[in-house]
Amino acid sequence: MSDITVPRLNNNDASYVLLEWLFEDGQDVPQGAVVAMVETAKAVEEIVAESSGIMRQERKQGDECAPGDVLGRLLDPAQAGGTGASGTSGGAGEDAAAAPPGESPAVQDPETLRGLTITEPAAAFMARHGIPAGGLATLGKSVITRADVEQLAAAPAEEDGKVVDIGRHQQAVASTVERSMREIPQAFALMKIRGSALADQRKAVRLETGLIVSALEVLVLVTGRLAADFPMIHARRIDDRHVALADDMHVGITIDSGNGLYIPVVRSVAHKSLGEVAAEIEEFRKKSLTGDFRARDLTGAHLSVSVANYADLSCSVPFVQPGQTCMLSLCGTQYETDPADGSRVPFFHVGLSYDHRVVNGRLAARYLKSAKALLESPESLAGICRAAEQTVPHQTEESRDDG
């Protein structure tokens, strides 16, 4: 017999949701088969059988589960008789399987709790603090843990307006933000960049290749060009004395199409063309409409870019992602009058939030000045934008900026 356990799928979520079983109880499961789908706050992942056997499900579709939890078991044929989940009676054994590790289910009152299972630590906390059982049904869970009860106790007793659930996705964003603010002492620098050369280069690329790009795709390539000269910008802090230097350059970009914030990762940007980067970002935008991301799409970045290129937005201060040292922000295009000839000149701002334990202000300023030099130089931009043959992805109006 072997257990089907939940692996740790990312560093942000404390729990996941069992989305779907792909084998029924009693079915023969071959080794290496995908047996279940588990949903994190931002992606759907496959659970693979590490051995063969007869399926016995221990958790139901829709259940929350944590890393290390047992979802089911693969039994030897000799053990399989009469042990499937469909043959259980719904008694204490089933409740024990449904309870999180370390929290045994307490005796429940079916009339009061309407089938809810309260773990012993949760029941003890309720008794100690005088928390009534009537509010447990509002949690929307079948197994109530101590953490659930603590959340209920911390909630305001009354609200003047409508109370809504922000959802698992935004809860994961909140958890990441809280961790970043708690663990990383952050500073910020902002650089003003003239946009004339970039606008000219984007127009030239569009006329020659049909490729429509924004400042974002070019900025991603610029980070790749600067990676070798500024290794500390995309290092990972290990402890007070050590950092790990990356041997490649993977860049995360923020995307929010109205269905939640995602930060998918463009890999090996120092070795890609403008067309390749544009195609990947466009594919990520499509995935953001449905949330159809895999864990690989959202992990592994050495540096991230917060995309805030809205018209007239002058400054955006991003938070450094846990596990990274810096995060760039790209703001919207604005215009000013050139006093020399009265012409209308575009400009935009690029910001850099940085972990002050690793990067000092001088290095942050040098990095931004180097990015500015590349983004304002027609010669440098031509080399960056035409380094390799371009591919032309299909783009929607929503995916283009207004610069």
Automatic annotation (TrEMBL):
Residues 81-93 have a biased composition (Gly residues). GO terms for cellular component: cytoplasm. Residues 94-106 have a biased composition (Low complexity). Keywords: Acyltransferase, Lipoyl, Transferase. The keyword NADP does not apply. Residues 4-73 form the Lipoyl-binding domain. GO terms for molecular function: acetyltransferase activity; lipoic acid binding. Its cofactor is (R)-lipoate. It is an enzyme of class 2 (transferase). Belongs to the 2-oxoacid dehydrogenase family. This is Dihydrolipoamide acetyltransferase component of pyruvate dehydrogenase complex. It comes from Streptomyces bathyalis.
